[in-house]
Amino acid sequence: MTGNGPLLLLFLLILLPGSHPMKIRQIYVKAGEVVTLHCPHSHKETKPTWTCYTPQETDLSNLSSAEQNQMGFLIHERSLVILSATVKDQGNYSCSLWNTTVQSWFRLIVYTTLSSDLERKTQYPITCYSQEACTLTCPDRNIPDKNILNITTTGIVWKKGSDVTTDSLVGESVSKEVYYFSSVDEEDYGVYTCTRSYVYQGQTYNKTFTVILNVKPGEKWKQPEILSPKEKDVFYVDLGSTLMINCTAVLSSEFDEVLWLSENSFVDRNLSSSVFYTWTQDINDEETKMTASLIFKNVSEKDLSKHYTCKLISVSEPPSFVTITLAQKDHTSTFIVALSIVAMILVVALMALLYVKWKTDIAIFLRNTLGCYSSISDGKSYDAYLMCYKSDSDGALNEDDRKWLENILEEFGYTLCFHDRDVLPEEPVEEAVSECIDQSRTVVLIPTTSDPGPGSGLLTDYGALVEQHSHVVFIRTETNGPKRSQSLKGLDKTGRCVTWKGMSSRLSSSSFCKELRYYLPPPQHKNKETTVRMIRP
Ligand SMILES: *[C@@H]1O[C@H](CO)[C@@H](O)[C@H](O)[C@H]1NC(C)=O
Ligand SMILES: *[C@@H]1O[C@H](CO)[C@@H](O)[C@H](O)[C@H]1NC(C)=O
Ligand SMILES: *[C@@H]1O[C@H](CO)[C@@H](O)[C@H](O)[C@H]1NC(C)=O
Ligand SMILES: *[C@@H]1O[C@H](CO)[C@@H](O)[C@H](O)[C@H]1NC(C)=O
Ligand SMILES: *[C@@H]1O[C@H](CO)[C@@H](O)[C@H](O)[C@H]1NC(C)=O
Ligand SMILES: *[C@@H]1O[C@H](CO)[C@@H](O)[C@H](O)[C@H]1NC(C)=O
Ligand SMILES: *[C@@H]1O[C@H](CO)[C@@H](O)[C@H](O)[C@H]1NC(C)=O
Ligand SMILES: *[C@@H]1O[C@H](CO)[C@@H](O)[C@H](O)[C@H]1NC(C)=O
């Protein structure tokens, strides 16, 4: 146990307030006034020992009470009371327990006149706002305990002005801890003194404090106003749900209040009610706001039929009101909105689908009705040249099909180039074919069973054909299988492929015809006569 002694000592030194040897409390007292030093330590069995160094060391606790009285102080419990301080009392004081194991230090400074530095240390500033209530409280630092033996307090005297002896009493608030202004004015600015008086053995001892009242223009309080909700607001709720409605107001004084009325009666503030309100206050430098939160624990049908009024009661203005109602959330309207969105998406999807399915018909229809003929002359004389290629499949076009195709295209208004008809007979066939390809806007490649005829030599290189002739429409058979030659494959990729489905395609309304017309540029009627003549002299 004994080994713990130094540790305990260290522990006490660190933990006990004021026990640090370097810390000295500065205490100021005006000469002739009462001052009390309160020892922060006490113990059931041991009273603190007071020692003063003024500058000679005196053990004050060892003196008898008669000696203490003679020296003008008294010790009671933890306090050392100096009844009428003199310059001789100025110095260091210590109170200690157990032979200075725990010790606190004080420095008593006794002054007769106030320097500006001392003023700062001994005066108590208070700030109030004009046209507002203001309370001056008499400080209670270093005053004797109320229950100190044989010291009786006689009261507090408030005076205005710095000179206690000449200045007059203020108001009727004498002998109170506080001095109260119901509404403070700029004129009230200034120095106030409060003097606490004590009687001890027939002698009156005083302690005077100086309070400086600063009056600032009223800013903390504003024009009272309910900020939210707004008049006639409707709150949409679900039956059976919990609802909180906040009524927030700016206050004009601390006596203003915000509360809730249901119809014409006050809403309960009892938290166990089904409808009640609570409030919170938010004070900052600029304004004071109060929020009264109206709470419905379980919104019922009955609640929906009532009017709720938030009332702001202010001391500076007549009361103001905001009335709101509740309404059931309308789920049908949101349902209708959702439904119409779905419907719109469906319509768009349907239109996209229809377009994909009928795009050829639509394009042809537009072409026919709006007369979308290209009017720009590109120097070509024919709309199309039908060119055969050899196909092994059964579904290829025969001579008859080809004749039909030529006729139907001419019926649709296309001018076709025939190398054997439109090109001079004396020209070699190969060159005639080349001429037709050059003079046509589109080359239509047709699969045939029979001999594809002249020009098929050109087809050994389809890629080159496509390159030269950007517009090639490729007709394929349904059974165009793996046997198809390598060079034909590239043509599928141009996308302009029309499938020949045998006899079923031999109708002007067939999908084959529609697709073919879709891929062919619109026929150009205008140049027909002139261009034919150009080549056929
Ligand atoms: C009081 O203590 C301070 C430092 O702790 C010392 O400077 C000063 O001289 C002391 N005053 C008296 C009167 O002992
Ligand atoms: C207290 O005073 C008595 C007599 O007055 C003296 O004998 C004693 O030594 C003093 N004690 C201390 C700690 O000064
Ligand atoms: C306090 O000091 C005195 C003499 O200086 C000594 O007789 C006494 O035992 C000490 N008490 C404690 C609790 O240390
Ligand atoms: C307190 O005052 C009364 C009379 O005023 C006196 O009889 C008594 O001894 C005093 N007590 C002390 C501790 O001074
Ligand atoms: C204390 O104040 C009262 C009245 O203000 C005065 O009569 C008395 O003499 C003062 N006492 C001291 C010690 O200054
Ligand atoms: C709200 O009240 C209704 C009817 O009074 C009741 O059926 C329902 O359980 C209550 N809901 C809650 C969450 O208390
Ligand atoms: C209402 O005010 C309180 C307190 O200011 C806050 O905690 C709560 O979130 C507010 N509720 C709503 C719905 O604004
Ligand atoms: C709140 O209401 C409950 C039940 O209605 C009641 O027992 C309680 O006393 C009320 N509390 C207050 C503070 O009125």
TrEMBL record:
Transmembrane annotation, as ranges: 335-356
Keywords from the UniProt entry: Disulfide bond, Glycoprotein, Hydrolase, Immunoglobulin domain, Membrane, NAD, Repeat, Signal, Transmembrane, Transmembrane helix
Signal peptide positions (record): 1-21
Domain TIR residues, every copy: 380-520
Molecular function per GO: hydrolase activity; interleukin-1 receptor activity
Residue span(s) of domain Ig-like: 17-97, 130-210, 224-327
Presence of the UniProt keyword Transmembrane in the record: yes
Family assignment from sequence similarity: Belongs to the interleukin-1 receptor family.
Name of the protein this chain belongs to: Interleukin-18 receptor 1-like
Organism: Sphaeramia orbicularis (orbiculate cardinalfish)
